């Protein structure tokens, strides 16, 4: 069995050693000839999997993407070829939530906000959006939720339509897939018209897909009146609209989901799916492979409260580190270098908080407490 995997997929050899022979490739530059012999193709978000890429391969049985997003996969073509497919739903959802929380804490410090006085509009309330809503609610921060598809399916879902959310939110955070057609497209969901509807001070956070915001329109709006802005994703990555950078409070290279756990969970999910497809029993689990975190346990007292969470979270992750890396290296080393050399970052759950009375809401933020 020949397995071809993106070179930026962690632990792929460890997971797939017993399944077949693993060959690594550059996901950004992969060609049809390079992948012609693959029985199993494992990609990340930077590889367009479509007819031109698979034209020379007649033996492919399975394509897996170790990501949540699937906008780089031509599902109709895979269906036509009868090639099985899997993504890794939810694999890095917690990582993205931690990125957004860290960004909110950073903005709150910079602009001296009391976050509990701010209403956060969450657009797209799936794995990431719903976890974020739970975390913010646990922190007593009001939220508005916008997800028309959920509203259609779930009568008890409290939906705020996008136009009203734009008018009411103090902070708006995008967590939709990139959808170019259908009833609820998200390409350029935040366009010049919607930007004009936002409160002038409304902060914008995008950790979904770059094209969910019209980047040229965003730049034009920022040049007229600057609002707080956090961008992890950009249109036309890796050749992004660099003039936007001075107008960002936080700018990063599509790494919101790149926690150690988030990336590794993606590989594990594809491994499990492949084993199922091939009818073999999985022998490797993620817990066997994850490195021991630098700090494993922290004793907290009965005085531990909401204001202390930020200090503990900072031990694990501060988005300002990634913003500094981005500003320092984007012009010299480029977008993909920043992603490839991303420093290890553990999720909140890697740190066990122990104490007589650990508050229940810590779990809502993703901490491991007992
Ligand atoms: N920056 C990163 O590193 C990173 C990491 C993971 C995922 N992502 C992106 O985030 C997206 C969301 O991830 P998820 O795990 O929450 O996905 P999900 O599929 O669980 O949830 C997406 C939600 O968006 C909703 N939605 C679709 N169209 C909408 C619209 N027009 N308006 C409002 N809501 C809409 C869907 O109904 C769904 O509930 C992914 O598709 C991916 O593109 C980015
Ligand atoms: O959709 C996702 O899961 C994320 O955008 C993912 O973290 C992207 O990372 P990449 O595959 O590009 O390394």
Automatic annotation (TrEMBL):
The keyword Cytoplasm applies. Pathway: Cofactor biosynthesis; pyridoxine 5'-phosphate biosynthesis; pyridoxine 5'-phosphate from D-erythrose 4-phosphate: step 2/5. InterPro entries: D-isomer_DH_CS1, D-isomer_DH_NAD-bd, Erythronate-4-P_DHase, Erythronate-4-P_DHase_dimer, NAD(P)-bd_dom_sf, PdxB_dimer_sf. NAD(+) binds at residues 147, 176, 207-209, 232, 257. It catalyses: 4-phospho-D-erythronate + NAD(+) = (R)-3-hydroxy-2-oxo-4-phosphooxybutanoate + NADH + H(+). Keywords: Cytoplasm, NAD, Oxidoreductase, Pyridoxine biosynthesis. Belongs to the D-isomer specific 2-hydroxyacid dehydrogenase family. PdxB subfamily. This is Erythronate-4-phosphate dehydrogenase.
